[in-house]
Fold this sequence. Notes:
Blueprint: H1 2-20, H2 25-46
Helix pairs in contact: 1-2
Amino acid sequence: MTVSWIVTGLGIIVSLLGYYLTPSAWGYGILGFGLAHILLGVLDMFRTPTRIHN
């Protein structure tokens, strides 16, 4: 769960950086990269952990 929060938090930071650079193509790319990390971090929070029993 901690890793999910870290990925989501970094995604927010990267998205904000991309938002401030949006008039350029780099800004849109960085914004999309950050939004993808936010989405993946949130989806990972809902995933049930797999447990391996030997």
